[in-house]
Every structure is written in C-alpha cells, then in structure tokens.
Amino acid sequence: MKSPPSVLERALALLAASLLFAMMLLTFVDVIMRYLFNAPIKGSFEISETLMAILIFAGLPLVSRAGEHVTIDSVLRLTSSGVRRIMTLVAQVGCAAALVGMAWLLYLKANRFASAGDVTQSLKLPIAPVVYLMALLTLVTAGVHLAMAWRSLRRPPQSEYNADDNRSVL
After folding, report:
1. How far is C-alpha 145 from the chain's CA centre?
2. Do residues 83 and 97 touch, judged by C-beta distance below 8 A?
C-alpha cells in the first residue's frame, strides 16, 4: 500500500512540473519569435539549460522515493526474505553515501563558481546558486534513501518474493 505524498514530495513535484512547463513555454515562444518575427529570445538556450539541470535534480528524490530506478532483481528470486532485506539495506545506504559524496562535490564546485564569479555567457546569470541548489537536492535524495533504508529495517520480512516490494534494491 502506497502512502500519500508528503509535503516535500508535493513541493518537488510542483517544482518539477513548473520547470517543465516553463521550458515548454520558453521553447514555444522562442520558436514563434524566431520564425515569425526573426527575433529569437536572447539567452533561451542558457535558460533552458539551467531549467533542465534543476529539473533533473528536483526529480531525483521523486524517482528514488518511488523506487523507479533501473534495477536488476534476478538474484532476488533465489534468496530468502532476510537476505533481500539485507541487500535492500546495503543498496539504500550505499546510494545515500554516494549521493552525500556527490552533494559534497557539487557544493565544492559551487563554492569555486561563487569565488570566481562565474556567470553564463550571454545573460551573465550567476552559476553558483544553481549548483548550490543541485547540491541541496542531491542531499535531499540521500535523505530519501536513508529513510527507505530505515523503513526496510522496520518492515516485517515477506514470506514470498514480490518484485514490486523490492524495487528499491539496486
């Protein structure tokens, strides 16, 4: 049974949907302006690029929470429920550790962008805030994996294999 979406899930879904809509609208208006009036929107590629980066990182916690990552579960059919729980726990903690490391590297990169004053080429928008947001969203995703690891510890063992119940095993 799936739990109702949390406030964080709703906020991230709204952010992702808004970013996707903004990208769609920007592309539509840019094409119209470009081909009908020979006046493309200045920096539309930079804006789309930035929105896409944020969209990917905003969607990552949602994908993780839903267990929608690509998984290979052929070995799980041959294991006991206890082994599956351990594998799930190891996978979730491993993902969380990797994501914390990635968030740290993004944070360091954002610091370098901020100290250098790096900006986009045509619109001169600062790059550091976007990378800080990417780092934060990566950290949120790590938190999702830790919460799922905790949940796997508290869930009673299942008597038979069900692929849907083990989607989070990587």
Report:
1. 12
2. no
CA 16 from chain centre, in angstroms, equals: 10
Is the CA virtual torsion 24, 29, 30, 35 positive or negative? Answer: positive
Per-residue pLDDT reduced to its tens digit, 96-122: 999 999 999 999 999 999 999 999 999
Alpha-carbon distances of 90 from 62, 84, 86, 143, rounded to whole Å: 20, 10, 6, 15
DSSP helix/strand/coil, 8 = helix
Phi, psi of 126 (to 5 degrees): -65, 140
Residue 81 to residue 98: CA distance in whole angstroms? 25
Nearest Cα neighbor of 50 from 123, 109, 115, 106 is 123
Helix (H, G, I), strand (E, B) or coil at 168: coil
pLDDT tens for 36-65 read: 999 999 999 999 999 999 999 999 999 999
